[in-house]
Amino acid sequence: MNLKEKISRKNIEKFDKTTDKFLVLHNDDFNTFEHVIDCLVKIVKHEPFQAEQCAYLTHYKGKCDIKKGSESELRNMRKQLVDNKLKVSIQ
């Protein structure tokens, strides 16, 4: 591998690490709307209306993107939401 290929590979790896991801809330059968809304307001820092809309979208569509950011930024929020019994993934 020549120097040009090494530099190109490093740039691609650097770009892949900074690519934004989505924190996705998945529907479940046991959390109340109030609990989901409260968690989104406290943990994700949504406004109450935005949290309510996300809760309804999740209920009717099965999932909803609730936050966009770097994976490292979203990891802590995901842990807090999971600790509050919400089904959440990073995609």
Describe this structure in words.
By secondary structure, the protein is an alpha+beta fold. The model has no long low-confidence stretch (mean pLDDT 89). It is built from 4 helices and 3 strands, in the order αβααβαβ. It has a domain at 28-90. 21% of the residues are buried. The protein is 59% helix and 19% strand.
Strand content: 15-25%
Q: Strands of the largest sheet, in order across it?
A: 2-1-3
Task: Return the average pLDDT rounded to an integer.
Answer: 89
The radius of gyration computed from the alpha-carbon positions, rounded to a whole number of angstroms, is 17 Å
**Between the first and last Cα atoms, what is the distance in angstroms?**
32 Å
Summing up helix and strand content along with how strands pair, one would put the structural category as alpha+beta
Helix content: 55-70%
The major pleated sheet works out as: 3 strands, antiparallel
- The low-confidence parts are none
SS elements, strand count: 3
Number of helices: 4
Q: Could you state the order of secondary-structure elements as H and E?
A: HEHHEHE
Q: Indicate the overall shape.
A: elongated
Ordered list of secondary-structure elements with their pairings:
Elements: H1 3-18, E1 21-26, H2 33-43, H3 48-61, E2 63-69, H4 71-83, E3 87-90
Antiparallel strand pairs: 1-2, 1-3
In a few lines, what is going on in this structure?
The chain has 91 residues and is of the alpha+beta class.
